[in-house]
Amino acid sequence: MNFLTPEQDMWRDTVLRFMEKEVGCEYVQRCDSAREYPYEIYRKVAEAGWLRMLIPEDQGGDGGSIFEYALMCEGMSRYGFDFATAFMVSTFTAMNIVKYGTPEQRQKYLEPYMRGEIRFSISISEPSSGSDAASTRTRATQTPEGWKIQGQKLWCSGAAAENVVIAMLVRTDPEAKKHSGLSVLLVPNSTSNVDIRKLPTMARRATGTTEIFLDDAVVPTENLLGTANKGWDIIIGHLELERIAVSAAYVGNAQQAVSDALKYAHERIQFERPIFEFQVIKHMLADMQTTVDAARLMVYRAADMASNSIPCSREVSMAKLFASETLQTVTRQGMQILGGHSMLPESNMERYFREGMQATIGGGTSQIQRNIISRAMSAGQ
Ligand SMILES: Cc1cc2nc3c(=O)[nH]c(=O)nc-3n(C[C@H](O)[C@H](O)[C@H](O)COP(=O)(O)OP(=O)(O)OC[C@H]3O[C@@H](n4cnc5c(N)ncnc54)[C@H](O)[C@@H]3O)c2cc1C
Prior knowledge:
The chain is globular. Helices cover 51% and strands 15% of the residues. The chain is built from 11 helices and 10 strands. It has helices at 6-23, 25-34, 39-47, 66-76, 81-100, 103-114, 231-267, 279-307, 313-338, 349-359, 366-378, and strands at residues 119-123, 139-143, 146-157, 164-171, 182-188, 194-198, 209-219, 224-225, 269-270, 273-274. Strands 1-4-5-8 form a 4-stranded mixed β-sheet. A 4-stranded antiparallel β-sheet has the order 2-3-7-6, with helices on one face. α1 (6-23) packs parallel to α4, α8 (279-307) packs antiparallel against α9 (313-338) and α9 (313-338) packs antiparallel against α11. The chain is of the alpha+beta class. The chain binds flavin-adenine dinucleotide. The site of flavin-adenine dinucleotide has 23 residues, from β1, β3 and α11.
């Protein structure tokens, strides 16, 4: 199964080699166990120039395609989805500034981002606004000092790291209909009266996810991204790119889970033979690899369509649904194949399994993806 161009093939190999030689599975495991953000590798990724890949050339980047970006996300999540999240959340959020930023905002944020000096996070969710993402309550009011923000955001991944600018969905017109009256503000995480607390979650331990309390925090008027009260349009486009990236990363992590389980099945001797020789284990592994290959094809289809500007919200949701469920399923099967050993951090499988459990929730739950797919089917798409 290889229909990549020679250049794409080479790019995929480059990312995988980088992960093996410059990062290593132990580093990813250590960051997870210590709940430490992967600063060292973030710097290396910036030095390698990979943060510029999606940024168009006329904005100082390399102008890479979404497909190439998906290949990068797939490779970088090899040893854990959470590790890749540190880069993905920054890169897909940066694209909102590419698309909607003023020339001043692009100059102020994109260059330092590409050098690895600042990062981005996306903050849509709130305590009472999850799947119903437009039910935003956090309120921003225009004052002579700038936008004054009052409220609470939840699950903002990567926001507690150093030098993060948060793209935050806020309600700016409470009189307007639900999806109208929303705006996106750029909120540096060092802003006064912004209290960011890392949450002790089961997964997403290194990049971290957070709750954010805003108590009359003020950001300058020019920190509005795009047009006031048109923020929902930004979020729709954002979610499409985010879902392609995370789906590719689920596939990368799922592939490693299958490879680890296969290796273990050959090495582990019980009843005087490798457990691989038991048909039930062999078949489990065959099913696992088949599902991962199917998920990869779905992700490549969605990424290819997006790269060619073909409308693909249905295909993106299918990829998100199938790839996230695949990561969850194959890591659960991987746990079974590794037996008791799977429970230890050094097995890595328990980390992959934890990531699989959050995959069907973060970025829009499996149920919401099914809603999007069935809506598109009904509309004849
Ligand atoms: C690790 C992690 C990282 C995250 N990172 C970010 C981030 O960086 N930025 C950000 O903004 N958010 C982030 N999120 C939030 C994530 O997007 C939400 O958790 C997700 O959208 C679901 O919202 P909820 O958790 O409030 O669940 P709810 O919306 O309360 O859903 C609960 C259950 O009800 C189901 N349900 C709800 N509505 C429907 C419906 N209409 N039809 C069928 N079933 C439905 C859901 O599928 C789910 O099973 C993150 C979440 C996690 C777990």
